[in-house]
Amino acid sequence: MKFEQNFSQKQQQTQKLAMTQQLQQSIQVLQYNSEELLAFVENQALENPLVEVIEPDWQPDYQKRNASYEGEETSYLNQIPDTTGSLFESLIEQVHLNYRDTFLRKLILYLIEYIDLNGFLTISLEDAIQQTNATPIQMLDALTLIQQLEPAGVGARSLQECLMLQTERDDYAPELAYIVLEEWFDQLVERKWKEIAQHFAIPLSDVQRIFDYIQTLSPSPGRVFDHSSGLYIIPDVKVVVTGEEVQVISNRGNQPNVRFQEAYFQQMQKKADKETQAYLKERKQEFEWLQKTILQRGDTIMRVAQIIVSRQKEFFTNVARPIRPLTLKEVAEEIDVHESTVSRAVNGKYLETDFGVFELKKFFTTRLKPTNAESTEDLSADTAKKKVQELVDAEDKSKPLSDQKLVELLKNDKISISRRTVAKYRDLLGIPSSSKRKRYDK
Description:
Layout: H1 21-31, H2 34-47, E1 51-54, H3 61-66, H4 87-98, H5 103-112, H6 125-132, H7 136-146, H8 159-168, H9 177-183, H10 185-189, H11 193-200, H12 204-215, E2 237-242, E3 245-250, E4 257-260, H13 262-270, H14 274-311, H15 313-317, H16 328-335, H17 339-346, E5 350-353, E6 356-359, H18 381-394, H19 403-412, H20 419-428, H21 434-437
Parallel strand pairs: 2-5
Antiparallel strand pairs: 1-4, 2-3, 5-6
Helix pairs in contact: 1-14, 4-5, 5-7, 8-9, 11-12, 14-16, 16-17, 19-20
């Protein structure tokens, strides 16, 4: 067999996008919310002596906590109380205040180490006994003392025990609430209320009252110490409504900006050698890129917000706040950018109005198919979900609407969707099925 290789030279022109480090950072900057952007800009200023950060009108939480208030002008932000205490710290403090230093207190402190942020004990008593050489009675006594601490329900080993602990300490709890939780918890959750009513010889309305009471209890008592959520939101744009006119204004004051240290740059250039001049030139280029990237981020968010507001004008002028169908692709095509750019521009960015603050991505919703060929109404999934919520809110709770009945009632409003879609929307809205919505008030 003869093997032959032929070599030839040819020129080929191709075009491709090179994902440079600066381009990657520009994409990342667009995705940052206001606090993340400020942290990024301040980090750049630490690395570049030619960058001066112009602080926005707000300050992030860590700056507020570390600020010195001597001689400061009074601000409403300074009046926010310090709520940085944790559940663990609270329990330790209560133990030291209430119990003297004994072996039992050591067991209590040991168990507290295994209480999670929700307030539940995450170690079994058997394991705790093996690791501490305590007796079962001693360990049970330690747990009992923990369960007498605040908040009520702390130290529970299950949801059932958590609710029982809260009910036990509530003088206003329904008479049979504790015993129902203790012995009939599964039947109560599964809504087998007739069995409970027959056992205690009480009407279903009494079981309903017990269930309503339990709904007021906390399934995670330790979460009262959770301060991870932010105190406020920094909107990127503001919408002003004057009659029928809707105007979008950029909240530039809420965004960090940068200024070039011109005096320092000129001073350094006068006595700089070649290596220093190259360093200064590189840092100046970094400043120019940073400034351009921040401006581009603001402009992109502004352009996206303007399209959203123009498409969703009724939301701002109509008290019913209807949201029309709108997709990321439609906005992307209108401002001539990629769909992913719009996604980054709306994620974590907020719009401020006189009636509330809304995340930009709230205004995107899919389009429902019209009920028939003659129908020209532009319906969105948000419209259908709102109507489902309205129908459920207005229903007779003793005879709640089934999903099929909701389908029929929606057709009266020219909203034609399947029973499966109704069930999906109901789940998204956190509405239980009709059997679980049924009430026994009489």
